[in-house]
Amino acid sequence: xxxxxxxxxxxxxxxxxxxxxxxxxxxxxxxxxxxxxxxxxxxxxxxxxxxxxxxxxxxxxxxxxxxxxxxxxxxxxxxxxxxxxxxxxxxxxxxxxxxxxxxxxxxxxxxxxxxxxxxxxxxxxxxxxxxxxxxxxxxxxxxxxxxxxxxxxxxxxxxxxxxxxxxxxxxxxxxxxxxxxxxxxxxxxxxxxxxxxxxxxxxxxxxxxxxxxxxxxxxxxxxxxxxxxxxxxxxxxxxxxxxxxxxxxxxxxxxxxxxxxxxxxxxxxx
Length: 270
What we know:
The protein has 270 residues and is α/β, with parallel strands linked by helices. It has one domain (4-262): Ribokinase (UDP-N-acetylmuramoyl-L-alanine:D-glutamate ligase), CATH 3.40.1190.20. 36% of the residues lie in helices and 21% in strands. It contains eight helices and nine strands. Helix 1 packs across helix 7 (210-223) and helix 3 (83-95) runs parallel beside helix 4.
């Protein structure tokens, strides 16, 4: 049977993040991708100049259309900017008994533009984190969810992951890309303990869509029946390769996208 994943997230008109990054990632990793668009953004590599939220009832209609026809194996959730939208998505997940939910609590774009209404943070905690098989915050997002300081090392990351699991998530992957050092270290905490996922830190400004890509890569693995720890490890490897190849692309004048198809495109055509 064809592995199917759905992304519930905002659209990036520049193509590097959001729905577009998720669908590229699903395709690159051999998974059929469907989508529920929660918002339109006027966005490019230099920043976000406008956000137009989809009506919650239309978001619900998209969810019902996808789940009533497609056998969805995994769900990736990204940008949800309003309380009413979060509630509509949570209700849809309940209605269709969605499984393998990967929640990326998107709050700030790579450019620094805020994407999540501050009033929606509590709704995210209450309504969506308990649905998640894994949540994938970066260091600032984990701190915002916990209303605390940004973790300054792996010990602090682990403590924050434990607090986030106490909110109801089955697992937490705290991403260390915003940290320092020669390695970019993510920590995955689940019922089995802590898994350290490390890769060399790559110096490039072209990291647009990194978080979206990682969470959708995990969802792709889960959709194919890969256990979470293995799915996270494979996703980390894929994203590391996409970042390392990002400078092979020539897209925009700001923070360019990672290279989702780095394993397949002919360099001579880039």
